[in-house]
Amino acid sequence: MAEHSDDIIMEITPQVLLKAYACGLFPMAESAEDAGLFWLEPERRGMLPLDSFHIPKRLKRTVRSDIFEIRISTDFEAVIDCCAASVPDRPKTWINKEIRRLYGELFDMGHCQTVEAWQGNRLVGGLYGVSLNGAFFGESMFTRETDASKVCLTHLVARMIAGGFHLLDTQFVTDHLSRFGTIEVS
User: Fold this and answer.
1) DSSP state of 51
2) 28, 130, 166, 176: most buried, per Cβ within 10 A?
3) H or E element in which residue 16 lies
């Protein structure tokens, strides 16, 4: 949509968004109903070092069991819908129409990817984010079955290592991400 600053209106395009990521900024909305976006530039960021990614033993067994079929970038709309859906521990979302539009365009350009966990024809977990110059900027993840999003994260890290990526930006550190070795950096 537009960003207001001294009555100057600037449309946020996918190209502007990529430049913002390169500078350490990312957009958010107050809520799904809010039409506008604002830029975040946290003083401290969550980073998951790829070389010290920690997979708990139980999760290793789950990954090896192949109870989920992992697909890459096959259904962006379903992933963002699930990331934006209300769940008991998060009844509201920040994913608005403008976020959907921008990241959908980045997806069409090849800069936004999804990692999806499927059971049969049912999407049960996933994540999406932006890839740019050897870095992946995680945006959101969801789970509908135990460990589905964790398995997606594990596959993401493996793909990043195989693809020569250097950085997994998680934006913030959460208890969930700390289990995998996420650290906070200036």
Assistant:
1) G
2) 130
3) helix 14-22
Give residue-wise pLDDT tens across range 7-63: 444 689 999 999 999 999 999 999 999 988 999 999 999 999 999 999 999 999 999
- Answer yes or no: are the C-beta atoms of 106 and 130 closer than 8 Å: yes
Decide the pairing of beta strands 135-143 and 167-171.
Answer: parallel
DSSP one-letter string for 139-174: EEEEESSTTHHHHHHHHHHHHHHHTT--EEEEES--
CB neighbours of residue 160 within 10 Å: 20
Place of tokens 């975040």: 40
* Cα–Cα distance for residue pair 149/127, rounded to 1 Å: 7
Pick from 185, 169, 177, 108: which is nearest to 133 by CA?
169
The pLDDT tens digits of the residues spanning 109-131 come to 999 999 999 999 999 999 999 99
